[in-house]
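User: I'm putting together a small comparison set for a docking exercise, and I want a reference complex before I start. The sequence is below, and the ligand is guanine. Could you produce the 3D structure with the ligand included, as structure tokens?
Assistant: Of course. I'll restate your input first, then give the structure tokens for the complex.
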Amino acid sequence: MRQAFRASLLHCLSDPGEDSRPSAHEYFEDGLLLVDDGIVTKAGDAAALLPELDADRKLCEFPGKLIVPGFIDCHVHFPQLDIIGSYGEQLLDWLHRYAYPAEALLADDDYANEVARAFVDELLLNGTTTALVFGTVHAHSADAIFEAAQAHDMRLVAGKVLMDSNCPPELRDDAVSGYRDSKQLIERWHNNGRLGYAITPRFALTSSEAQLAAAGKLAAEHPDVWVHTHLAENTEEVEEIARLFPSRRSYLDVYEHYGLLRERSVFAHCLHMDDTDRKTMAARGGAAAFCPTSNLFLGSGLFDLPAMRAAGIRCGLGTDVGGGTSLSLMKTASEAYKVLHLQEHALPAMRALFLATLGAAEALYLDDCIGNFLPGKEADFVVLDPEASSLTARRARATSSIDEALFALLTLADDRHVAATYVRGVARHSRQQR
Ligand code: GUN
Ligand code: ZN
């Protein structure tokens, strides 16, 4: 199928940095996105491209709307959907009080499937077209999220959680069964259409040394699968890791020791780490998921984006629901701005957009196929409506540049402002159809 989408078009070409380098993005106020069989063939000015359109190309026009690449969530837990916004604890108590009981409910296959479908619907409602997703310890939780994503043709990476210690007995696997189940899931789902598998040790606190070693062995046997875990989120957690692994230099060193730090390793949070860790992470090709709503909500700390980027680490935004408080990457970007402001750093809107799109694609090593509108990329995109609420309509009229308009939108938007979400050129969510 040959399609053309007309609206304002905005995408990033590289990291705009703290000073928002203008050459890092392209903006077409009256733009046209050409898509052939779900693949972008061109993005440019409508005035230049419209005269060349063949009669057989289907034209969709979105006057007053802004098309950006589909948002990419670099870290989220689908089984925690129903405990989002749970009161009052920091990480370790929060896990025991809220997250683990919620995850135990997914022992039930039907419930796991229902939550996975609801979760994917929520992603699309928020303009998210790709995510790196934690399941639960149950192997069927990975089947559930992959099936739900496949039903919408989404590019999604997920894994069954590995956890065999310091957690409730009903949520434990063991080193042997965790390895075996993960391997079977890799064979079933990795590179199955747009899906990918992530070996998912929850964090070093909940895996025995035998399990971490088994996870590393599995990673070595499958060099192109992802590794997805948590790192240095909370000071109590970091102290506990130091106590459990006294011979390791740092928390990151634990993962490196077990072969879990490499290209396509994604670490959520990365709040309490030093420059040696940053250098090592960059050199090995590991990536960080910056999860501001979670970090503020759980009182974990402030992500140092400039230090991470200066070290050369790939970074994307993560919602970290249910520790995070929204599945919207626009709300997440807005909280990221505040986190950086508190540290006397800037986060211009273009850099926030980068972290939610191309930067996230780079963090996931998926920038060859998603993240912006260069020719050959998959046509995953969001149609944003700056006038979806009376307040944002007023605010939009008072802006005089795309940077200003984008910043106001990211700061004020919610899911009403996602007019439609397209996956490979097909509308998978549309407010008009609701
Ligand atoms: N660290 C280990 N497990 C979790 C989790 O489920 N959420 C968050 N935010 N941090 C974790
Ligand atoms: Zn998490």
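The first strand starts at residue 2 and ends at 12. The pocket of zinc ion (ligand 2) is lined by residues 75, 77, 230, 268, 320, 323 (CB under 6 Å).
User: Thanks, that's exactly what I needed.
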